[in-house]
Design goal:
By secondary structure, the chain is an alpha/beta fold. The protein has a single domain (2-180), classed as 3-Layer(aba) Sandwich (Cytidine Deaminase, domain 2), CATH 3.40.140. Helix content is 21%, strand content 31%. A hairpin with a 2-residue loop joins strand 2 (26-35) and strand 3 (38-44). The protein is globular, with a radius of gyration of 15 Å. Residues 88, 90, 98, 101, 123 line the site of zinc ion.
């Protein structure tokens, strides 16, 4: 699976992350299916409160309205425009999903009321004041975690994540081997 990230959303993230400092912030990813297995992040919702330096819990109530407005704007065309998943920041840790992150994502895809057959998790962190580092994974009920590549829309340039940040090389782990950082 591939994610396309428009520069407007990059900007939204860099400014919000700068403002949030060491506090984790997060929200929902709303996307458009571009072609098989390729989604564009069309919009994000943002919750700036409720996070600490090592923890973020999304309050579903705060995101209902913007999600609903997104569906209205896109004509309730759920095949093409839909909930893509979750995002949050890791200002103090690498952009790897923690065990808590992984657990809550499997809860989302296993929840029949949500009805999402997959959900992505994107974790962002400021690399510099104006640039981002990120990692993205997709979760499907009953399947191992899978890495997703994120590309800047138009530029087609892959965004560097923790895997390319000059850490010591380790043997390739299986996709289920996403390590915890907390
Ligand atoms: Zn996390």
């Amino acid at each position: 699976m591939k994610l396309l990230l428009p520069s407007a959303i990059m900007l939204q993230w860099t400014s919000a992350l700068n403002a949030a400092g060491r506090r984790e912030i997060g929200g929902v990813l709303l996307g458009e299916l571009i072609k098989t297995d390729t989604f564009k992040i069309s919009e994000i919702t943002m919750q700036k409160k409720g996070g600490t330096f090592c923890h973020f819990v999304r309050d579903p109530k705060l995101h209902e309205k913007p999600i609903h407005r997104f569906f209205e704007r896109t004509g309730h065309n759920y095949e093409r425009f839909n909930y893509l998943g979750e995002w949050h920041s890791h200002p103090s840790f690498p952009t790897r999903p923690s065990t808590t992150d992984i657990r809550s994502m499997y809860r989302i895809v296993g929840e029949p009321n949500i009805g999402a057959n997959f959900a992505a998790l994107l974790i962002v962190k400021l690399k510099t004041r104006s640039d981002l580092e990120m990692s993205a994974c997709v979760f499907r009920s009953g399947f191992p975690v899978q890495e997703i590549r994120v590309y800047r829309e138009h530029l087609g340039k892959r965004i560097h994540d923790w895997r390319g940040m000059g850490r010591a090389k380790v043997a390739k782990t299986r996709q289920t081997g996403v390590a915890s950082n907390q």
